[in-house]
Fold this sequence. Notes:
Order of helices and strands: HEEEHEHEHHEHEHEHEHEHH
CATH superfamily: Metal-dependent hydrolases
Largest sheet: 8 strands, parallel
Radius of gyration: 19 Å
CATH architecture: Alpha-Beta Barrel
Distance between the termini: 18 Å
Strand content: 5-15%
Amino acid sequence: MCNQQEAAAGLIPVAYRRPAEPGDEPDDGAAASGGAATEGGRSRGAVDSNGQRRALDYPPAPEPLPVPVIDNHTHLDFRDGAVEVSVRDALDAAELAGVKGAIQVGCDLASSRFTVEALDVEPRLLGAVAIHPNEAPLMAQAGTLESALEEIEQLAAHPRVRCIGETGLDYFRTAEDGIERQQYSFRRHIDLAKRLGLALQIHDRDAHEDVVRILREEGAPERVVFHCFSGDAELARICNAEGWYMSFAGTLTFKNAANLREALAVAELDRILVETDSPFLTPHPYRGRPNASYMVPYTVRAIAELRGSDTAELGAQLVKNTEAVYGSWALV
């Protein structure tokens, strides 16, 4: 489906370059196709968590992977950087880098609606819909959580929605008085995934013990993914024992992420997935800059190096694992 000129490794993909650069004026037809990446109405700030201005240029494209893989978690509705990139252009750039598809993930009603709309026009996507754990307490307080969960169930009926997510627990940003509501929402999403026979993508931040406890109390769905796995070797062993999947993002490459590398070392090969969580969590050495699905190869190669694996063999296994969770991308 790629219609852009082939992007060379080491260059920023055409669709992600600033329009002021010579020779990269966007093609109007391509930019309109598949929906703009801002349709969900969200945009990442230009200042990082330390109050410093971020570099907003997208990183260069990596060498294409020898075996194309799938980005397990991306937010194509969430704008970052100095350019606006369409869904089609984002996936074209990814495909040129050896990333043949992605899971587009909703975090609220707007982004979940965007997800379903994108699935209708882009066959390289499957989708996930949910209310993010940081949104759930706010909705509960406003009295809108129940109606939101009802709409999520309706959106999840789309045949290319294969997952409920991202849901879970986030104790980093949620105040003490919101934890009970967050846990209630997590339980409701677990129930929904089980009733609909869908996978469950978990957002787990500073909440490993409670996430595991609630999954066991409720009875986990058949397929559970810890998106942007943030645990240690102990949590990885629990995932191995329970048959849960661990999806590693660019955080694996961060210098301060020894816990993730220890987890990867003990993770069973058939439980490993890869993702970007774009536009966030850009791999080293581009940490802090905008992320996109075409950046997946940086993390795949980091996994291969850390595990002593052949990159092509790892890629084939990652695809096998991904399709075991979500099913086929083929249109039916």
